[in-house]
Design goal:
It is built from six helices and ten strands; from the N terminus they run E-H-E-E-H-E-H-E-H-E-H-E-H-E-E-E.
């Protein structure tokens, strides 16, 4: 019997993977990797390792999750060391929990290797500390792909439950998210930052507020992280990462 590593590859910058995650890549017989994984990391794989692309592009999922689960079981059952390589962290909107349960149910040995999620890293590269002792003492990570599914009560909790809000996968439905937040009582002057391709050379950051951000949406696309809260104002003082001057992709 083999073993499966559920590995977070980090947000994009290849140097932000953990030492343990890199070792799992180097030792793997089979690597199943997602679209947002930096392909430079695959250069560390063994020459004979089998590399399987799983996709995970919005609305184009490549291998469906059930097929990925089957392949994890198949290769591990045949004595292979399998690394399931995911962008960010496997347990933050990465379906790592689903895969872990599937492996557990099939009595496959596995190990979870956490990674740096984009909510932390992209914000940091944009010069935005998610917490600050005088401004923000709480953070929410929110799936923004289906805002219509949340009730008004849930939006009240989102808007008022934490000082800083981080929306993943929210660009396509961002106008709806803004409207829901305003209806829930969030001030129109609340600052917002959208970070595109965070931690990579092509990173782009825009800053506006809840009232004016809609006029900037033509400048961005996926993958992007949305950060909302007063900590965004600190971005002007903490511009440590030099972004590309090229146009948005």
């Amino acid at each position: 019997m083999g073993k499966v590593y559920l590995v977070g590859a980090g947000p994009g910058d290849e140097e932000l993977i953990t030492v343990k995650g890199l070792r799992a890549i180097q030792e793997a017989d089979v690597i199943l990797y997602d679209r947002l994984v930096n392909l430079s990391l695959l250069h560390h794989a063994k020459e004979q390792a089998e590399l399987i692309f799983c996709g995970k592009e919005p609305r184009k999922h490549g291998l469906i999750q059930e097929k990925i689960n089957e392949q994890l079981i198949y290769y591990a059952s045949n004595g292979k060391v399998v690394t399931r390589l995911k962008g960010g962290d496997p347990f933050i909107f990465g379906r790592g929990g689903e895969e872990a349960i599937h492996l557990e149910e099939n009595q496959i040995e596995y190990e979870v290797v956490p990674g740096i999620t984009s909510g932390i890293s992209a914000a940091a590269y944009a010069g935005i500390p998610l917490t600050h002792r005088h401004i923000s003492g709480s953070v929410s990570f929110i799936n923004g792909s289906n805002p219509e599914a949340k009730t008004d009560e849930q939006w009240q909790h989102i808007a008022n439950g934490a000082d800083t809000l981080c929306f993943y996968m929210g660009i396509k439905k961002f106008p709806i998210i803004c409207e829901k937040l305003k209806n829930a009582g969030l001030s129109k002057t609340t600052p917002i930052s959208i970070i595109h391709w965070g931690t990579l050379p092509q990173q782009k950051t825009i800053v506006a507020d809840l009232e004016t951000i809609s006029g900037r949406l033509g400048e961005i696309s996926n993958p992007s992280l949305i950060v909302i809260g007063e900590v965004v104002r600190l971005q002007e003082q903490i511009k440590w990462y030099k972004e590309s001057t090229e146009a948005y992709m």
